[in-house]
Each structure stands twice: as structure tokens, then as C-alpha cells.
Amino acid sequence: MPEETDDILRLVRSVHREGRVSIRRMGSFVNDVFLVKVDGDRYVAKRYTNWVSLKWFTLSLYGLGSVRFSISGKRRMEAEYYFDDFLYRRGVRVPKILGSDPRARVILFSHVQGEQLLARLAGVLGFSDPGQLERDAAYSAGGLVASAHELDVALGDTKPENFILDRRGEVTLVDLEQARHKGDFAWDVAEFLYYSGHYWLFHSRAVSGYVDAFIRGYLEQGDPRQLKLAASPKYVRVFSIWTPPNILHSIRKRLLKPQPAQRN
User: Fold this and answer.
1) Phi, psi of 147 (to 5 degrees)
2) Which strand (E) or helix (H) includes residue 136?
3) Which residues contact 79 (CB under 8 A, 6 or more apart)?
4) What is the pTM of this model?
């Protein structure tokens, strides 16, 4: 067993004392993420690194005055532990926390079955018009984001790769390390839609259907004012280096459409 997984193994054994353990790295761009198998059970272990992520550093510079990101590994771990537990206990679809090691900065989560929504949007050739499953996922994501907002939680990182999609079109959010109370709710809406637009070259009815599905899901319990705020040029500017301008424009137009009054 590699030395870097010793802390993960100890944490897994606090939850699952028997059985053969397999630990495989899943990703390491921002954090070290591992898939853990113990006999027939699966878990996900996440180690929060201390170095400054290029992704957050770039976004923080380019979005200066629009968005704020935490780059400290300790701070990100604390946020993910608190808000994941907070939302899970209130019925929001996030993974269950099974254990943690603050010294090693590792959290062990339940494994969420499914695929990243990102994989569905990118498609085999890099770009793909959203179909019915993607529209169902957008609707589900809109409802999930709104349910967090109703609990006064801004999620902070709502790009589609952080939503795990099951066969029914339901999604689970798996990254809460940028979440905070009384944060920027409009940013959550803007990031999900504008970042999704990164995977489209041309506007189409399918793209409009995806955006409208998210909006419908959000309005089930969300505040329509956040949709208009998400159309602000300060958010559009942040994504202009990734998303085609015609797509940004079409998404912004749909966010600015008159929406039903907020439900009491």
C-alpha cells in the first residue's frame, strides 16, 4: 500500500473493520480524490491539499470584484465537512460523511452512483446538444441549488462536473468546499448555466430547453430575483474566456425573461 494512502486506510478501517481494501486515485488537480473499495462497498476519500490551485487562482484574479474563492486546504475541508453535513441532515442530495481526519485533512464520503453531468454535456466528440436526460438533470440541479439557497447556503462551485447524474435524471452535488452561509446565490445560478455553455458551439432549441429546465427547477422554491442577478455583466465577464459569446448572450436572455412571482 503506497505511503500516501496510509491515512485513508486508517480512516476506512474506523468505518469498515473487515474486508480487503482497494484504494485508487480518481483525480488530483485541486485535491487528491480516491475511490475506495472494501469487498462490495464503495467510498470516496478526499484529501485537501494546501497548495494554491491554478483553477481558483485564475478565477479569483479574473473574477476580481465579482466572486470570492477559498484557496486554503484547511478552510476548504472545514467548509465541505460543515455544509455537507448541514445539507445532508436536511434532505438535500449530497453525499453522506462517514468519517474524517483533520490532521491528515481527509474526509471519507459515501459513494454516489452515476456519471458526471459534465460527461453528458461534453459528448464523445467534445460537444453535444443536450437531450432529455440532460434537461431532466438541469431541472433536478435547479431544484437542488434552490433548496440549498432556501437554507441560506450558497454552494460556491456549481459547475456541471460537480453534479452526479443517475439514470432517472436526478443529480447529487459532490463538492461543497466553496460553500458558505449568506454567500452569492446568483453566482451559483450563473456558474451552472454559463459553465454548461462552455460545451456548446451553437445556440439551439435543445440548449434553450436545458437552460429553461434549470430555471423551472430553480423556481420550484428559489427566488426569481436571483435569476435576473445571474444575468449581470459581472458574471458574464468571468465566463467570457471559456464560453462562446453567442451562448452567453442566449443564456442571459433567458435569465432575463419575466418569471412567476416568488411563492410564499
Assistant:
1) -65, -35
2) helix 132-150
3) 70, 176, 177, 178, 179, 180
4) 0.87
| Per-residue pLDDT in tens (0 to 9) along the chain, 264 residues | 465 688 888 888 888 778 888 888 886 555 688 999 998 889 999 988 765 555 555 555 445 445 666 667 788 899 999 999 999 999 999 999 999 999 989 999 999 999 888 777 765 334 556 778 889 999 999 999 999 999 999 999 999 989 999 888 889 999 999 999 988 999 999 999 999 988 877 777 888 899 999 999 999 999 999 999 999 998 998 888 889 999 999 999 999 987 765 554
Q: Is the dihedral of CA 165, 179, 41, 20 positive or negative?
A: positive
Nearest residue to 169 via CA among 142, 206, 204, 205: 142
Amino acid sitting at position 250: S
